[in-house]
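Milestone M4 deliverable, item 7.
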Amino acid sequence: QPTNQPTTTNHHRITQMDERQRRVDYVRRFPTNTHVYNGLGCLLRADETVTLADGRVMGKRDLFVEAIHWDSDNSFAFNNLGHALQLGEAWTLRDGRCLTKLQLYLQALAIDDSSVMAWNNLANALEFDEVVDVRPGLRVDKKQAYIKALSLSTELSFAFIGLAVALAPREMVQLPDGDVCDSVALLQRAFEHNFDTNTTRVFSPTSYAGLSSRAEERVALVTAVRENELRTFAQAALRRRLKLGTELVLRDGTYLVGEGTFACE
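Output delivered:
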């Protein structure tokens, strides 16, 4: 039956549009404020643009570049620009530097090495066997970067999920709190925490079922983080790791049945 009340999705769109217009107005009033550009960029989906008062049409990535232009020490903007890129992609800054997704995260950490999200995003971008120099004297691999993120905060689900994907079958890892976990235990712990990546949600959710390898999962995880679909991704990853037919009820009430794709024998 027709109703005058907006649906949840439509209400979300209206709220986002109102906030976006407010941020566009902020840019007009404070055209050199780095945080205004960064905040507006966070509101846009990957396919959206805004027209600023000076006539420039900018997308999400352009706004983060503008934020960096007005403050080259804005670690959030470097992290967010990296977050907006695909694996293997690079983007050119106003100063002419062309930085990859990985380099943008490293720059964010060079400015602020206490950023949980930058450590987590760096780990997401690394190959399973890749090692990177964060600063002189500090080299980390994918798992070490996730563990560093968890040493800074365990309130978010992101690093638990990423570390689970990084573990080989039957591999165990010791967390900063002393717990020793396999990938199933890590994914279960993720459901005790917040899944929101603080990015604008998509309205056509991605399916994360049917992935047949950890390499495919690694790529899909980057998409899930960017599109704010970590809960859906984690559910599918956990089903793959549970033995076939195993039933599990998570702390948030989610009911899963194991598929056995990645289950340890």
